[in-house]
Protein 1
Amino acid sequence: MLNIENLTMKFGGVTACSNFSAKIKKGQIVGLIGPNGAGKTTIFNVITGVYKPVEGQITFNPKDHKQHLLVGLRPDQIAKLGVCRTFQNVRLFSELSVLENVFIGNHLRIRSNVFSAVFRLPSYGAEEKAMYEKSCYLLEKVGLQDAKDEKACSLPYGMQRRLEIARALATDPRLLLLDEPAAGMNPQETGELTRFIRAIKEEFDLTIFLIEHHMDVIMEISERIYVLDHGILIAHGNPGEIQRNERVVEAYLGVE
Amino acid sequence: MKIKEKSSVTLLILLALTIVGLFLANKFLDSYKIRIITLSGIYITLGLSMNLINGFTGMFSLGHAGFMAIGAYTVGILTMPIPMKEMNFFMQPIAPFLANVEWGFLPALLAAGIIAGLAGFVIGAPVLRLTDDYLAIATLGFAEIIRVVFTNTQSLTNGALGLKGIPNYTNIWWSWGIAFVTIWFMTVLMKGSYGKAFLAIREDEVAARSMGINLFKHKVMSFSFGSFFAGVAGGLLAALLGTIDPNMFRISLTFNILLIVVLGGLGNIVGTAVSALVVTIMMEALRFLDESINLGFIQLKGIPGMRMVVFSVILIAVVLIRREGALRKAKRV
């Protein structure tokens, strides 16, 4: 589904990631781990079009027959193709209500133009109703239905993270990129999150690529794991292989 | 759903009361006061149009006077009777394609809006790649460019001489009618999906574009709509005053509107409308501060522009104490 080839990203003289390749198959949950500053979020930013890589190619085929090159597209175009993300430090529309946040996630699929929206033409009305219902459904999925009229910034941190996932789901993604979804959660919450990620993957037929520092989460749900250190891919494989890999242990614990 | 019905009933009552109020004002007040109320209607439209750009979409634009100038000149040239045109353009005859036009007020107002909106589109397309203070400087520059161009296009705008004898079509009903249309437009726009997308851009551009919102398209859209209404309001103003010249449309005009928007609360439709009314009335009511004041024991010499100090103080107070605007209680869309 997503094919990253020889991706290199530099900021001035700093190489954030070099020669990174990865393959994500449809329906997989794939993990991306590495020590702080290894370049994980940079890779997400390149996939979603925030940065343009110095080298490399990213191909995305949501359905088997159609190939899209992601490099060079704008973030909103990439989102339209069905790649959506959450952010490491939550980025909600904080002054807007919870419901509005999810509602806005629907906007990219709108077919009516702005004039039919202003004049409330029936075609727009039907569309808005569907968007509203979908938003409510997604909020129910993430357990925020009772908070839908609250301001997004007034929610506790854990709920903000779930709201961000709901907003991303509203864009109808095929590939969902989660940037540290379990950050700041206690073991009980991470357990819930793991189940939640599995559940949405099944229900919305998603492929998931996630960055995470909680090893128990990553080892439990990922089918494949890519390990990054100083911008270089040092290992990839299934969780068992990664746990036994010496270079990974070195990168995390150091060597004598 | 219940709340929705309730609020629309309240709105209807408010609308009815305002119309009755306007009717009574029109009947019993003297022409000076009627004129002030008419002017407030125009300022409501101006405030709301700037609010769309600055308050809802979060773009710091200071180009309003320029778009008003475009609207004002469009209405002035299109509605002016043909003999009047000949009298006005004595330095250089008017461009032939405009010499024999004399439109009705409504089509002229629409043309004013559309031309200003198109100008907004043309200016917005390159300028809206900038953000924050850079955008403010660039839009301010464009407003000045429009003014300077109008000063020099003698056969089109009569240059620095300005236009005199524009028919006084604007009355209380025109100005408030357009104000109501603007309030309605902004309300439904912001309720719908496109309005929410504008808000998303204001809140967080990075998140908005990651959610698939085409920043550029939506920014240009918001900017063009704002310019459209600024143009219409400019047209109303031209037909209220009867005389316009390029120097009317200086930066200070933009700042008056910005004052209204900030006092009413950025992103607050009701607040902006009320603050437009209050500020316009105060602008006139405080005129005594500009004249010499006799306190009995001491005679203060009049300083023109003293009344603006009052607004400055209020503005500073609002920014320090209530950044969300003086009238925040009303629900923000």
Protein 2
Amino acid sequence: MRVVAALSGGVDSAVAAARAVEAGHDVTGIHLALARSPQSHRTGARGCCTLEDARDARRVADVLGIPFYVWDLSERFVEDVIDDFVEEYAAGRTPNPCLRCNEKIKFTAVLDRSLALGFDAVATGHYARLVEGPRGRELHRAVDPAKDQSYVLGVLDSEQLAGAMFPLGDSLKTEVREEAGRRGLLVADKPDSHDICFIPDGDTGAWLRDRIGASPGDIVDAESGVAVGHHEGAFAYTVGQRRGLGIGTPTPEGARRYVVGVDTGTSTVLVGPPVLLEVDTVVGDRPRWCGPAPDVALEGQVQLRAHGDPVDAVIEVVTDDAGATQVVGHLRERVRGVAPGQAMVVYDGTRVVGSVTITRSTRA
Amino acid sequence: MRPEAVAAMTAELTAVGNPSSLHSSGRRARRVVEESRESIAAVLGVSAGDIVFTSGGTEADNLAVKGLYRARRAADPRRTRVLASAVEHHAVLDPVEHLGAVEDAEVQWLEVDHLGRLRVDLLEKQLVSDPGSIALVTVMWANNEVGTTQSMAEIAALCAEHGVPLHSDAVQALGQLDVDASTVDSLAVSGHKVGGPHGVGALVLRRGLALEPLLHGGGQERDVRSGTLDAPAIAGFAAAVLASDADRAKRTARVRLLRDDLVARVTTTIDGVTRNGDPVDNLPGIAHLSFDGCAGDALLLLLDAAGIECSRGSACSAGVPRPSHVLLAMGMDPVVAMSSLRFSLGHTSQESDVDRLLEALPGVVARARRAGPAR
């Protein structure tokens, strides 16, 4: 097959490309330029789009002896990922830009362009497995539970999965690092990237304030209704957050207080004891199915954040009065801190069924 | 590299001696350097004493632009203006911008027309208005992207008339055109563009023209440029200049025909192809074409996969495609600029290479059109 290997400049994508080459594919390396004015060097483990990363990606292609190109997707990245990220926060939700990037950039913009140019697939260094099942290609969790990235791929539909290749799904991260060293890939010891790549200093609150503007308001105790503090913008708070509230947590009685609600309309942040965070029903919309949609209530699991544990649940697809599809997860146990805007990814064992964007969560 | 250059360079690589040493092996090396200097000077129509060896074209351009600006401004603080054509190579463009950003130069970019030719009338207007405030004018001899050559004699005469020094980046022109360096005050050339080694070049600098050095040290080159002379590279450079001068007329006539054939065949075979640059006054080996509805990087990828190497003209350090400043200065729309490719032909190019390109290109363009233009 003719394969585009997306090379970030990191160790995972390097080994993924190497394995694609070794499997006999005709591989072309592509580095995605996602930032308009890239920083020249990485600072710690943050970011993934510096000039240094582009050079590292090029060196990987050199070592593998494959052609290498940089594709400028910075404009699409702004439109499809960054603008959406800002809008979601401005509306009081907590988006996961990595899912959005996988859906819109890596497996739409890059995959579409690759297919148009005569390639058959896009290989990435994601830790997830593709399994040919009775009903077509399935997306499954990686064998390395610590590195599994099936959550951030839960937005890919059948067509996108058909053009995807994840050569690392059967490996442990330690094996991948070791293999990179053995193959002479100089990125073997490069740190993993964390956090949001387009916020280089990691200060999401300040980054959002620059773009949304300050919108001061009260921090209100959800149980007493009493204002207990002040904030510069409700959008900077996420349900479940405990640190950085500036209200002298814990309460005078000694109880810890968490953000339990965010209303950007009234610019109010609600805080309260952790019990208010407990939910057992999670509702989401905008479903993306990684195959056929479940037609009956599914006894499966849901995962509510990128590194969260799966929770047993019954998942129902319902159509509301307006004709919009909603997905309801009836959780077998209560969980804490489910923020609107995050993805609820639905699993059936190791298989990813699909994902929805969380709109609300309740407690019976 | 040309075989003459390889022979001259390898012969010198095994020889001992620093050209600046006074002992006999030093004198032997010095002789090689001076004979090289004389050869290059003869081809360029100047005296040997005008040649300042550098590490390449970029250093020669930087030395001329920054060195002339600093020396001329030190001599007369009114000289703050730098006039530069809008289509300069980055080796000139960036030092000029640097002078504007850091050293208070008043940079005036000289417009070109849609073919990339300098608007000499506008240059004259700038020269006439207070020539005493101009530190230097810089106009490249021939453009590296679209191949357009400038009317250097006319431009040089104008600058001379107003007593303003003129620098020209002739890196692309040497070996391709008749370059008479005596017409300008300062001229940059490079070894690898004439089939010599990389990492060596020269600034041809009219004697008597004061210039502030960039590199301070032993003062090996007329106290204008310091650094131990690289005798093997200089010998290879000179051999390449001589060889490329000896066969220039015949070689460039053949390449020009081949290039014209390429342009004619591509534009008649494929719809929506436009040739850029001056169709008459140009470098013989460059065909610069725009392909409607294509992204240049897609064309490049597909052609490379088909075994045909071409270029998008310029790339930034991350290799991110950006519309070329040259094409934008020629008034081209950014999307059209991004749909352009440069095909370079040289002395090894054959009709069969053009045939091979014509075989691959229709399919490549069709496929690139399906993938869409740059956005």
